[in-house]
Amino acid sequence: MKVYDYCPFFSSAENDLYEIRINEHWDCVDKFIIIESGETHTGFKKRPNFDHERFRKYAEKLLYVHFDTFKEEMAKYPTLIDHKINKTREGTPAEHDWARDNFQGNYIVKVLEDLDADDEDIVYGSSLDEIISTKSLGKAIKIVGNNRSELFKAKTSEGHDKNGLHITKWGEYNDLHIPPLMGFWLKTYAYKLNLLCPTVIPMANITTYGALKTILPATLRHLAIYTHDAIGSFHNPAGWHFTCYDNTPFGGGVYQKYSSWAHSKDDINFCRDLPKCCVHHFREEVAIRVFQEFSLEVVKVKRKTHPNFLLDNIDMFSRGLWNPLGVDGKIDREEAKRRMAGLPPSQTTVSCGPSGTEGISSAFAEHGPVIENGRWKEQHLG
Phi/psi at 51 (nearest 5 deg)? Predict the structure, then answer.
């Protein structure tokens, strides 16, 4: 029995997150698989961003897979397309974006077939920024491994009925029985590694290769299918979701992501300062969305709350940390949005948090170390 870890790869900033992921998962995984395309999910050409030199030291366990265009690959591997899932986005601005996203997520089935994987091999699959603690991943592998020859009735997560995506509404899956499949409760950090969001939800999944041959990964994801309860809990998360991570000055990385991923045309009626459906053409739009979508708080990086590799190599991630002066735990969102949009700081700070949130008062500072001679670490490490 082998254990595989796979994820799609997109931007250069993700090299940071992937090195955290590969080190946190290393002792549990036999083969790490990265799948990168020559196009974004919004259909633009992109250069390869995976840093082969940086990951050369992990080569014994690493497989990098690249394809050029979605159109060509979809024509070659039509069995990796779930037309019924794609149809749920039909007629929306993001119809083709989600078709590309789903196909890249399903591409692992083709890769594992090429590797002659066994049906009972274990597969952890997620977005790259969803990282499981070593302990929690080991626990999940044990559950799947001990029960991998058995079949369990598939269910859809309670309350999940977006766009009719509930297993009971899909006749072919009403009595679906598959090997063990579960997700993980993950704590969310957004934009920077030390900007904590209160959201803790089940994400990602782990199952067997045989299950992925029965029902494609993107379908499992959209229907929120599981057979066993998610590992961890709201109060005891199993890992981290470092969403919209950016290690560039002034929000360049997160702007690149928001203008290129399938979510770029989401309905965002929670952002009162943007149109309901926003195609992110400008950094101002991205800044507004990030700081209205997430209620963020600056926290210290501690072994109790963050991956060990981050703590052990904190200088490597200096640009991935939020560096306010005079931190009191809260962010001035107006100043944050101005900085991400490349605008100069205002003379006064104005709280724009959603109704019910605490006032926001700390000043916004430049990215990168703000205190010299070793004191920078003291500011960020618990």
Answer: -90, 90
The residue with tokens 């029960």 is 147
pLDDT digits (tens, 9 = 90+) for 353-371: 232 222 222 222 233 322 2
pLDDT in tens, 65-115: 999 999 999 999 999 999 988 888 888 888 899 999 999 999 999 999 999
CA distances from 171 to 36, 159, 161, 237, 321 (A): 33, 19, 15, 34, 47
Q: How does strand 195-208 pair with strand 297-298? A: antiparallel
Structure tokens at 202: 């089940």
Query: For residue 255, what is the enclosing H or E element?
Result: helix 252-258
CB atoms within 10 A of CB 283: 20
Place of tokens 């993700």: 14
Per-residue model confidence (pLDDT) at position 295: 79
At residue 377, what are phi and psi to the nearest 5 degrees? -60, -40
**Do the Cβ atoms of 142 and 122 come closer than 8 Å?**
no
Tell me the CB-side half-sphere exposure of residue 283, using CA atoms within 13 A: 15
**Amino acid in the structure at residue 320:** G
Q: State how beta strands 177-178 and 239-243 pair.
A: unpaired
Query: Exposed, middle or buried, 168 (CB in 10 Å: 0-12/13-18/19+)?
Result: exposed
Element (H, E) at 286: helix 283-293
Between the CA atoms of 249, 252, 258 and 259, what dihedral angle is there, to the nearest 10 degrees? 170
Residue 270 CA, chain-centre distance (Å), reads 20
Helix-strand-coil percent breakdown of the chain, rounded to 5? 35, 20, 45
Q: What are phi and psi of 204, to 5 degrees?
A: 60, 180
**Cβ count within 10 A of residue 203:** 22
Q: How far apart are CA 106 and CA 77, in angstroms?
A: 10
Q: Using CA atoms, how far apart are residues 275 and 366, in angstroms rounded to an integer?
A: 29
* Spatial distance between the Cα atoms of 177 and 152, rounded to a whole number of angstroms: 5
Are the CB atoms for 124 and 137 separated by under 8 Å?
A: yes
Listed by start position, the domains of the chain span: 3-242, 250-380
**CA atoms within 13 Å, Cβ hemisphere of 168:** 7
Q: Distance between alpha carbon 99 and the CA centroid of its chain, in Å?
A: 18
Q: Using alpha carbons, select from 280, 274, 244 the residue that is nearest to residue 260.
A: 280
* CATH number for region 3-242: 3.90.550
